[in-house]
Amino acid sequence: VRDVATGWSRGSRGDGTSHRRWKEKILEILAEIQAPLSLLMLRLCNWALLKLLNRLFLGVQLHRGQLEMVLRAARTPNVPLVFLSTHKSQLDGLLLTFLLFSQGLGVPRVTVGSQACSPHLRALLARLGAIFLPSRMEQALSDKEEGLLEAVLGTYVEEVLRSRQPLLIFLEEPPIALRLSAPAQQWLAMVYRAVQDGAVPDVLLVPVGIAYDVIP
After folding, report:
1. Are strands 204-208 and 109-112 parallel, antiparallel or unpaired?
2. What are phi and psi of 132, to 5 degrees?
3. H or E element in which residue 147 lies
4. How far apart are CA 17 and CA 54, in angstroms?
5. Within-domain flag for 3
6. Which of 110, 84, 83, 89 is nearest to 173 (CA)?
7. Which residues contact 85 (CB under 8 A, 6 or more apart)?
8. Which of 12, 19, 107, 187, by CA, is between 20 and 30 Å from 49?
9. CA atoms of 15 and 79, how far apart (whole Å)
10. 175 preceded by cis ω (within 30°)?
11. DSSP 3-state assignment of 109?
12. Is 13 a member of any domain?
């Protein structure tokens, strides 16, 4: 990130000014990507989801054989987990996070595209573990700005994997099915690059499936 930012700010008048300028730019990008997890919000949403699920569904079934394989993968030392899932409804992220959290697997970082949502909803989801593609990634940017954006985002994904936080990537966006979405391609490319560059020695790709009798 420092190398890219130095190239981006090269040619400006003062070192102190340019340093402050790219640091502010990086902090803006980070603020778009993530927010610190809120344990209080997680506990409240855990309680609220139980109430919501009881009202929405007659039952939620968890496949014990598949759960055992996921737990076995989680016990692999020094290898981060990347969950890959189909995307059937807007509830998938909350439901899968709730199920993984309830089984002692921690709170996964749920990848989200740069689609528009209200600032309040975005802030809430970020506190619950969502990480967002910066909205500017879909805009026409200069090569330097695009390079800085990709460097910050790529480094962030490397740090998530290095700290062994589970990462949940949805392979498409509802209601589109059987087609790898553009955000999924970007997230998977960053995971691949983190392994290729040696930021982590390996990752475990764990497929998880979710199905509804009636999609909510």
Report:
1. unpaired
2. -110, 145
3. helix 143-162
4. 56
5. no
6. 89
7. 92, 96, 168, 169, 170, 171, 207, 208, 209, 210
8. 187
9. 40
10. yes
11. strand
12. no
Q: How many CA atoms lie within 13 A of 122 on its CB side?
A: 17
Instruction: Decide if 2 is inside a domain.
Output: no
CA distance 6 to 125: 33
How many other CB atoms are there within 10 angstroms of residue 194's CB atom?
Answer: 22
**Residuewise pLDDT in 10s, the chain (216 residues):** 877 777 665 555 556 667 788 888 888 888 888 888 888 888 888 888 888 888 888 887 888 888 888 888 888 888 999 999 888 887 888 888 888 888 888 778 888 876 667 778 888 888 888 888 887 665 545 666 778 888 899 999 999 999 988 999 988 876 666 778 888 899 999 999 999 999 999 999 998 888 888 877
Asked, for residue 89, whether it belongs to a domain, the answer is yes
**Residues 159-192, buried b or exposed e (16+ Cβ, 10 A)?**
ebbeeebbbbbbbbbeeeeeeebebbebbbebbe
Closest to 33 (Cα-Cα) out of 195, 180, 186: 186
Q: What are phi and psi of 207, to 5 degrees?
A: -70, 135
- The sign one gets for the Cα dihedral 42, 126, 27, 1 is positive
Report how many domains make up the chain: 1
Residue 61, amino acid: Q
Q: Position of tokens 């890959």?
A: 84
